[in-house]
Amino acid sequence: MEIGTRYEPKGMEMKWYKNWLEKGYFTPKGSGPKYCIVIPPPNITGRIHMGHALNITIQDILSRYKRMQGFDVLWLPGEDHAGIATQTAVEKFLSTQGKSKRDFSREEFLSIVWDWANKYRTEIKNQIMSIGASVDWTRERFTLDEGLSKAVRKVFVELYKKGLIYKGKYIVNWCSRCGTVLSDEEVEYQEEEGTLYYIRYPIKEEDDFVIIATTRPETMLGDTAVAVHPSDDRYSKYVGKVAILPLVGRELPIIADNYVDPSFGTGALKVTPAHDPHDYLIGQRHNLPFVDIFDENIVVNENGGKFKGLTAEQARKAIVEELELQGYLVKVEKLKHSVGRCYRCDTVIEPRLMDQWFVSMKPLAKRATEAVEQDEVKFVPERWKKVYLNWMYEIRDWCISRQLWWGHRIPVWQCHDCGHYNVSESEITKCEKCGGVNLKQDEDVLDTWFSSALWPFSTMGWPEKTADLERYYPTDVLVTGFDIIFFWVARMIMMGYEFMNEKPFREVYIHQLVRDKYGRKMSKSLGNGIDPLEIIDEYGADPMRFTLAILAAQGRDLKLDVKFFDTYKKFANKIWNATRFVLMNLDDFEKLDINYEELSLVDKWILSRLHKAIQKVTQSLDSYDFNIAAGEIYNFFWDELCDWYIEAVKNRLKKSHRRLVQNILVYVLDMSLRLLHPFMPFLTEELWTKLPTSGESIVIASWPKVNQAFIDEISEKRFNMIMNIIRGVRNIRAEVNLPQSTKVCTFVKGNLSEEEQEYIKFLGNVEDIQFVDQRPEQSATAYVSIDTEVYVSLGALIDVENEVVRLKKKVEKLKNDMEKFTKKLSDENFLRNAPEDIVEETKEKQRIFHEQIDRIEQIISDLEAKV
RNA sequence: GGGUGCGUAGCUCAGAGGGAGAGCGUCUGCCUUACGAGCAGAAGGUCGUAGGUUCAAGUCCUGCCGCACCCACCA
């Protein structure tokens, strides 16, 4: 069968993907041992990025590997409606058309977002397909599907009934751009250079004052107290007195509270209970008034008097000017402090006192914490366990209401007559408490992560008792990045135990974050993103996948440089051409029952190497060491199979060994392609199906098993020697500047079989091998071991001085290496304490070095005698 | 303040108790009929630093120096 001369991924990939879908390989059969992964649903905000590509590649490697191992694999796909992110994206889109959300009713706006969602879902689906993901599309889910929405409502209602959901007025994080509150996790803190303002607050009816320090002078409009530490002598005389708020005139009690740090600023704190979480607590403790000075756009409201209508920033400027003018401003200092910003739009977060819905987390956290402590749910790499646990130990309540339109509307109908919250899974028209019909559903939607938390079971049909839940829950592994351990992983574990009474997954594999080649986060603003679709287009999905896999060591970051893709595209091409070579030599192929004893040395060598590779790849995949698995197959295929085995058998294919060699080649190639398939599904399918021994599809081919009978240390050792002899011969040619195409003659002291001589002649480009008792004149030393020495006849080309220098260098190196062993062996403690096999091994190595050095030194002194 | 990870070849990174590895880059040869997206050969490292454990330390422990990051606090 003929194939083209170059690896060309275009066209080939989608052809196979369609074929796989038609054959239904990705839909599990529903019987036998199962393996299940649910995909982390991508947001429908746009294109997938490299992080998704890595995430999907890893899951696909696992899925395909397990499928080949005979597991009934379900990899369940879907997308996330991504509340804030999507609404922001749509609003941005509308603004390019000169429109805004306010131009539409809620229903109209939602219909626009639904169009958007449908469009991007299709696009993302295509993108996932183009990577080659073997997901079961017949089970695709979306977080806003009716079924999943039902699950969301049921969970809300049940948590409410258990008293784990409550509504209350607390300080929350407000993003004025998004127009919604955020959970604590959605706020990202950054160190920023700020200013600390020292302001004089006069004492009422006294000619005295206290100085407070603040980074946010504008919030003084909402001050309702001044606080000092109870044991701060500097201020004890003021406690109980009243300060006058400059510019405003409000009377502020001076109170003592332990929260105040006497060493910060002046040790006196202005208390703004409505705009700072700590001040809020102080306000509660001391029963202070709460004065909210901002509206929803963080513009000063009527409580700000003459500053009304100014943004926070403008207000700060105006207030500072005014303070200075009136002599209240004492001094300003630079101060580094951290500022919270919205994780979606980077707007500065304003703490505000608002009435919101919360989930009480401590009760939910209990089992989810124990489960991870006891490794019922295991983190890989293990260090993330600690990160998870630390967060769980300190868990705080979760603000789940969002002032958005896009999402799951909160299933609460408040009665206008009696104020009762009617919490219900379905629309309610009559108040269950007072019977009134004046009900209004809560305007807010739920945090997008609320539905994500249910993903492992809601996608399988919960709350119905479905066959899928029965069979596939709990899932086997969750593959995700560390950045969403708190957002998502922790919450899934909590919800899984709460509603399924069972963990959602046995293991959590945490992979790296993909960064650019300088280690920076890939972002739109930096323009340093690498678009997986462009990479697929230019290099192919298989090389991209292989690149990501081989870089996926268990670290924190994956620094990605586009040039890596080129390297592994070359590898794909190598696989392509190696297969092409094999196929070109199969015109008269006939399958043989191979008798191992009949095999030649190279055959035994490659089979041994193959089975060791099978072992290593299998073990590495079992432990999520994708980089090791990929590296192993890369080296085996390129170095051993292509550069040695195929090179060696080129000659043998012409001879009477042809049949046998064809069979070994096909076998080794077949097994190699299977090992490669999880990494490079398209290429391996394309090539494997062309092999004479192949079946219907490599997707459903069985995973290679290690056959101990093929592991043959003796043949490996012997062929290793042959390789070293050949390298030695080539080396000498390079040393004396002979082209490798120049045939040379060699002399051998020792024993080599006919077959071994054949390899040396063919691969070393050696014309003739003569056996001798000692080194002949005018020859260079290519190889020296205890029982075998190989010399290359150079005739007049030999430069004795050069040869001496070369050998001396070699001896030097050998001596250096031997030194370590000699040292060890002369150490009594080593001999006494080291395990016997190590001592023996060391002695043996030392002996080998010693003899080699002896031999070469003798050769050197012979040569020197002649000069 | 609490925690995590990382310092190994010029670059990017593997390796985690017994002779320092890969890819890229560099240098030298090769128009060898599968592949120049290739083949052969070579140069290049006191494994951040100081101690400790051990017969034996890139590898385990401790301190230090650098670089990232997470959590909490930040008037």
Radius of gyration: 37 Å
What is the straight-line distance between the termini? 60 Å
Which geometry do the CA atoms define? elongated
Low-confidence stretches: none
Total DSSP helices: 25
Q: What is the residue-mean pLDDT, rounded to a whole number?
A: 91
Give the class from helix and strand content and strand pairing: alpha/beta
Strand content: 15-25%
Give the fraction of residues assigned to helices.
40-55%
Biggest sheet, strands in spatial order?
6-5-14-16
The profile of the biggest β sheet is: 4 strands, antiparallel
Structure summary, number of beta strands: 29
Describe this structure in words.
By secondary structure, the chain is α/β, with parallel strands linked by helices. Helices cover 44% and strands 18% of the residues. It is built from 25 helices and 29 strands. The strands form ten sheets. The chain has a four-stranded antiparallel β-sheet. Strand 18 and strand 19 (421-423) form a beta hairpin. Helix 17 (601-622) runs antiparallel to helix 18 and helix 19 (658-676) packs antiparallel against helix 20 (681-688). The radius of gyration is 37 Å and the shape is elongated. The mean pLDDT is 91. The chain binds one RNA strand of 75 nucleotides through strand 7, strand 8, strand 12, strand 13 and helix 9.
